[in-house]
Amino acid sequence: MAFLYRYCLWLPLIFCLFQNVEAQPSYYDQRSGVEVLFPSNLSIFPHQWSGKKVNPDIRPVRVEEIGRLEDLLSHAFSKYPLDLLTTNLDRVYVLKSMKFYGLPYGGTNYQQSIYLSDDTDNPWFTDDYIEEVFHHEFSSILIRNFPDCFDKTRWMSLNPSDFRYGKGGADAISKGLASMALDPAMIDEGFLSEYSTASLEEDINVFAQNLFTGGREFWRLVDLNDTIRQKTRILISFYHKINPVFTESYFRSFYYNTAQR
What is the pLDDT of residues 21-63, one digit of tens each? Predict the structure, then answer.
């Protein structure tokens, strides 16, 4: 996983996407009713993003991958209470790849939709990685929808006194600071990765993806590092406020269940 995020970049929320997208095939998740679509052309982007500067480029998912993605996303959706999904997530778009400014991106979100890449030609795009992207992006939607449930002041107080977040994900990517790997140097400062310092939102996103998919190393850090533990508990508190099923033992169960397979 250490090199996984060095090659798979996240697309921050820097543009608006149309919701009326012509996309085939598609399906509705059996449990939640969330629509999953597989776009095949650039009509998913507004006209102003079709210029040479942004230079959007997409490749559609191969039809034979759809069954695997259906199982993968069903597993990711199952970690959330049904009512939380149905009221906060409308649809998920999946592409083989997305490029902007010549750079590949793993995912983004807009309003209550999530956009994911599934580049089967890239060995880093594992099922685990794609699920991480989903939780990363969905946490942004939930933070936007429930701003009063997140203790921003307490979170910020845990950062070094002279620390300032960067100018956002796009700026971090342009400077080559988009690594999502757990970074010992960053962890000493209370961040999980280099990319976590891009913005408050990205810091939260990285913790969120690890809450839902984190393995042994993440939970070891929670147990050993005071700042990592406090940030984790702030985020757990946020999730618990929006639905009481979310407790620390609930999140730890994802790791334990995976480890026992």
Answer: 443 579 999 999 999 989 888 776 657 667 778 787 889 999 9
Cβ burial of 222 (10 Å; 0-12, 13-18, 19+) is buried
- pLDDT mean over 82-86: 97
Report the C-alpha gap between 136 and 117 in whole angstroms.
13
Specify the 3-state DSSP secondary structure of 7: helix
Q: Which domain holds residue 222?
A: 149-259
Within a 13 Å sphere around the CA of 248, how many CA atoms are in the beta-carbon half?
10
Contact assessment for residue 231 and residue 158, using Cβ atoms and an 8 Å cutoff: yes
Q: What is the DSSP letter of 232?
A: H
pTM for the predicted model, two decimal places: 0.86
The domain tally of the chain equals: 2
* Residue range 182-241, pLDDT digits in tens: 878 889 999 998 888 889 999 999 999 999 998 899 999 999 999 999 999 999 999 999
Classify 260 as helix, strand or coil.
coil
Query: Do residues 22 and 135 both lie within one domain?
Result: yes
